[in-house]
Specification:
Belongs to the DTD family. It holds the Pfam family Tyr_Deacylase. Helix content is about 20%, strand content about 40%. By secondary structure, the protein is of the alpha/beta class. It has one domain: D-tyrosyl-tRNA(Tyr) deacylase (D-tyrosyl-trna(Tyr) Deacylase, Chain: A), CATH 3.50.80.10. A hairpin with a 5-residue loop joins strand 4 and strand 5. Helix 1 packs parallel to helix 2. The relative contact order is 0.30.
Length: about 150
Amino acid sequence: MKIVLQRVSEASVFVDKEQIGHISHGLLLLVGVHEEDEEEQMQWLADKILKLRVFNDEEGKMNWSVKDVEGEILVVPQFTLYGDYEQGNRPSYFEAAGPQKAEKLYEKMIRYLKVHSGLNIETGRFGAYMDVRIRNDGPVTLVLER
């Protein structure tokens, strides 16, 4: 599983010009599921995300987690994170999990984050063409992989 995590002051996602998710201060997660991923990788990454200290304290040091600052999380599926661009000019996605498996793990991650964080969790729509709007804070961007 591969996740691009961005600290945001605001983020929203639209499908067919309709806003389906919006957060203020928090994290945007772009989530890619690998064909070999299992629930274990998802849980490890979800726990790590909730504990990562990427928010500034009063001295400007990144000492607080999203839970510490009572932030929000927007989770957006992104199979293109597993794009292979080595041969040719059109990426191939043979390492990405198929839609059925990927959606199942994506939905499990959302439920896991809701249960274990107590925070507002907003989501994109699996399989949809989405317009994701981000206002980065920092910027702080991490690529997490397990």
